[in-house]
Amino acid sequence: MERTMLFTFVLALSLTGVATAGPKEDVSAATQAWADAVNGKDVERILALYDAEAVLWGTVSPTLRDSPAAIREYFKPGANRPHLKVVLGEQRVRVYGDIAINTGYYTFSDMRDGQPVTIPARFSFVYRNRDQRWLIVDHHSSGVPEPPR
């Protein structure tokens, strides 16, 4: 009886079409992990998502960051801003072997002078798959320009 139930359970699982994630889904998950780390104010967790050779052109940075120390410096102030959050929006993931690009937008929210503010921005993350992990090798972010009048 137990064997029959086990066989039926295994057969039912096989017929449900259990899907495995592919590279696009893995890259999307890596981008979500970045947003979760930013929202968690965990600078070390953020840095762990970047390759050692990564370059960051941050949304509010006048400086191109091209070392782990410089990237840490960029994210460190955000860890002390309790209201700073990022929400991912529309994304387009393309995978080319061990390189992937995720382009889209995100919205930052924060408090300034006691008032809520939102900062819409666009991003491009370039990932490289190293040891089965998608790591950020290039991250560009810029504010969304005002629409033409």
How many individual β-strands?
5
CATH-defined architecture: Roll
Strand content: 35-45%
Q: What Rg do the Cα atoms give?
A: 20 Å
> Average pLDDT value?
90
CATH domain topology: Nuclear Transport Factor 2, Chain: A
How many domains is the backbone divided into? 1
The residue fraction in helices comes out at 25-40%
The dominant shape is globular
Uncertain runs are 4-18
Q: Would you tell me the structural class of the helices and strands?
A: alpha+beta
Termini Cα gap: 73 Å
The description of the largest β-sheet is: 5 strands, mixed
Q: What series of H and E elements makes up the topology?
A: HHHEHEEEE
CATH class: Alpha Beta
What would you say this structure looks like, in words?
The protein is of the alpha+beta class and 149 residues long. It has one domain (21-143): Roll (Nuclear Transport Factor 2, Chain: A), CATH 3.10.450. It is built from four helices and five strands. It has helices at 2-15, 23-39, 43-47, 68-75, and strands at 50-57, 85-96, 99-112, 115-130, 133-143. It has a five-stranded mixed beta sheet. Strand 4 and strand 5 form a beta hairpin. The model is unreliable at 4-18 (pLDDT under 50).
Layout of helices and strands:
Layout: H1 2-15, H2 23-39, H3 43-47, E1 50-57, H4 68-75, E2 85-96, E3 99-112, E4 115-130, E5 133-143
Summarize the structure.
The termini are far apart. A five-stranded mixed beta sheet has the order 1-5-4-3-2. The protein contains four helices and five strands; from the N terminus they run αααβαββββ.
